[in-house]
Amino acid sequence: MQxxxxxxxxxxxxxxxxxxxxxxxxGGGLVQDIERRVARAQTDNSVESIILTGGSSxxxxxxxxxxxxxxxERIDAIRVLMQTVENSKKPxxxxxxxxxxxxxxxxxxxxHYRVASSTxxxxxxxxxxxxxxGGGGTQRSPRLAGAAKAIDLMLxxxxxxxxxxxxxxxxxxxxxxxxxxxxxxxxxxxxxGLARKSGQLPVPADLADAIEEAGHRPRLTDAGQKIIDCVxxxxxxxxxxxxxxxxxxxxxxxxxxxxxxxRHAFFGRRMVARIPGGTRAGSRPVSRVxxxxxxxxxxxxxxxxxxxxxxxxxxxxxxxxxxxxRAGIDTSLRRDADKGRISSEVSExxxxxxxxxxxLDEAVESDLYIEAVFEDxxxxxxxxxxxxxxxxxxxILASNTSTLDLDAIAQFTARPASVxxxxxxxxxxxxxxxxxxxxxxxAPETLASAMTFAKRIGKTGVxxxxxxxxxxxxxxxxxxxxxxxxxxxGASPQQVxxxxxxxxxxxxxxxxxxxxxxxxxxxxxxxxxxxxxxRPYSKVPDLICELGRFGQKTGAGFYQYPDGRTPQIDxxxxxxxxxxxxxxxxxxxxxxxxxIVERCIFAMINEGAKLVGEGIAYRPVDVDIVxxxxxxxxxxxxxxxxxxxxxxxxxxxxxxxxxxxxxHGWAWEPAPLILDLAKKxxxxxxxxx
Length: 689
Prior knowledge:
- The protein is of the alpha/beta class.
- It is built from 28 helices and 18 strands.
- The strands form 3 sheets. The chain has an 8-stranded mixed beta sheet with strand order 13-12-11-14-15-16-17-18, sandwiched between helices. It has a 6-stranded mixed beta sheet with strand order 1-2-3-5-7-10, with helices on both faces.
- The two termini are 24 Å apart.
């Protein structure tokens, strides 16, 4: 962290540098140092203007989020900096290169003139952390860009280009060539001195209409509503009052459970990227990948890889499946081009990087091979024995298995050190999570390469050990177990789904399994019934499968799907469930939504604690990120283990003891880790440090 100060003619250049993203850190003293230098320049007779710059790649990605973990008053130093900049008697030009986000954008709008490189990007992403711009952004940006445009920036969190920022008035010029040289030229002409202070600009003409329209946005969060409240305060034309309201609202949001959960997830994604246990191995570069299996999962994986600009070969022995795979990839990439997500040139380049073949022998040699065939050990064996024969000696061999024993799969080759699990989540080109499974003989270099690969393709890689289901599906098994028991006891599919969706889950369990395909879960349950006879499931989902109702793909599962996608309640299913309860001599009862949520979510927490205790998951946050990025757990609750800390482990144990006295109470044996932490008055969060 440093600041380089230099005089260029009558201009003072203040270049601040805080790698990797030039965060405006209060704890590290950068914010205070910039403020002191701006204040000192006010009495320096050799200085006529001031240039603030963060360099060519990142002006500033915003405040240091670590500063938000203290008292709200801690970030007052940022507000002091903004006021000092805006109140400067000497014109201040922000020379913006690259990213200009959050607090960095607030610093820019507090300046008197803004010039940017053509590649600069601008955004207020605070809402993604359950916050609002807290350094004057809600008061200054609407005066500059108009209320509607500024509100949209703050509520969406999306980035805009330099050209868009210029069009709406957020910046004043786009630089020709070097942005610092351009800013110095602007300062030398005296043009910057003509700019007005953004906080003193008049009330935007569209304020009332913009406030009205914003208030009708769907799914408006607490942070979103407070952003609108702050912008509304501009109508009073009192900047000081508006800034105070903004600071008060920011402090409330910063202390809220929602923002703390979202910040936990933000830091958690960084934490899980670091392989624990002292692994410091280098990674092998991956530029070409072969995907073995051209079904739904293989197709999605191939699209994800092509979107990361990798060369991809798909091997699929069935001609009809291969043609369908190729067509699906083509459709996906061309649709992205048609919708403007990528250019037609990029689409064509990515399609040209794809090759398809019916045999491994015909495929081009690759750095990484990903097996994506049916979830059957015999099928996996065939693939890995073939890979052992044709893959280059230094290639990584990966299995997309979701539940099978990776160590057993690795034994199908003569090089188990090169074998790793890469469990993608469907649809693989969309879902963010990638479970990276570390086998007993997986080499550190192989694991490091897999994690680097995850980052390369834009996925959140989370390392998991080997067990049935790894992290995600092993926890999901207990979640589903309770959901199916609740159906036996008196709940309906729609009540279970409704209660958990109201809690915040992206989709209830009955709808999830209808979407995934009920036959997938059925096959897993049949295998586990043999392997784990002491942990029975309800027979309700099996009875539905026995009717050939496998979900959306067959037009019926727990629900009917007349149009192929919209669930409708089916009386036949309700009758089937009631009859089953009668058959097992269970008196149905009225079940509250609260019990549904507690039993399903607490079962998730308990199994997550067992995984951490067994070392399958390295840290509680690993479980959280798996569930946030792979299973639709509500981001505002931070993941199951974070949520457990908010509940309190003592209360969690108390509720679990109550459930032990109910139907299938054996499932509520507390994880030893929960008992240990509760005894020591510690939390799961303590284990993430």
